[in-house]
Write a structure and sequence with these properties.
This protein is an alpha/beta fold and about 325 residues long. The protein is built from 9 helices and 10 strands. Helix content is about 35%, strand content about 15%.
Length: about 325
Amino acid sequence: MTDTDRPFDSLALPRFCGVATFMRLPQAASADGLDVAVLGLPSDNGSPFRTGARFGPQAIRGASVMLRPINPYRGNIDVFSALRVADLGDAAVVPGYMPATLSHLEAAVHQVVDAGACPLLLGGDHGVSIASLRAIARAHGPLALVHFDAHSDTWDTYFGGERHSAGTPFRRAVEEGLVDPHRSLQMGLRGSLFTPDDVEQSRRLGYEVLSTDDMLAEGPTVLAARIAQRVQGAPVYLSFDLDVVDPGNAPGVQTPEVGGPSAREMMAILRALHDLDLVGADIVECNPLYDGPGAITALLGATVAAEILAMKAVLARRR
C-alpha cells in the first residue's frame, strides 16, 4: 500500500478539511485493483412511511471521518494495510421510479463485482438490497444471508400489488434464487405485526429466524457460532438494517422499533463474527432527517461498516 491508497491522516489534516469520503478514503472512478469498494445506494423509493434514507450514504460518510484505521477488537489490525479500499461515490437512481432505480443500482454493483472487489454498500432503504443481491449472486451463485433487522422484509406485496419495496427484498431474493434460505439467518426481529404470519412467513421460506430476545439471550459468542454453522462456508452477504438497534441509540431510521439492543450490544455481536466469506454487505435505513444534531445513527452506521472492513482485513491478512 502507498500513502495515496490510505485515508488522509487526521493528525496531519483535520477531519473538517477535504471532501467527505468514507473514512477519508481515496475517491476512485472504478473498483479496478481494489479489495473492497464503498458505494452509496441513495434510494428511498421503497420507503412505505418515513422518507429520507436517500441522504443516508452522505450522512454515514460525514460521520465516518471520526473513525481511525486500526481496529483494536481484531488484534489491532491496520485495516488499510491489509486491504486496498476506495470510495466510488454513489450509484445513479431515478427518484420515484423503483424498477428503473433497481436497474441502475444493479449495474453499479455489478461493475464492482466484475472488477473483483467486494461491495460495501451504504443505503438507502432496504429496498436497495435486491439490486445488490442480483449483481453479487450473478458472480457467486446463491448467497448465505446474514440479516440483522427488526423486521423480516419478506412480505409479498405492498400497496395494491407492488412487489418491490423496503419490506419485500428477502422474499424476492428467495424467489429469484439469489439467496439460499436454508443457509441464512434473520436476527433481531421484534415489534408489532401486520398479521400473525409476519414472522412465520420467513420460516416458511426456509430462513432461520431469531427475535431480539432470542439474539440477546444467546449472547455474542454462541450467536456467532450459530451463524458460522448456518452459513457453512458459503459466500455470505451481510445486510444490516440500523433499526435493529434500539431507537434510543439509533433514532435516525425509517421504521424504529422500541426494545432493541443497545449500540454496544450490537457491536459486540458483530465483533464476535469471524471467518465469514463476505462477498458483499450493506448498511441501510440511515435517515439523517430524524437523527438530530448528534448524527448518532450515522455514526453507528459508519462504525458497523468499519467493523465489516476489519473482518475482511483479518481474512485478507491470513491469506
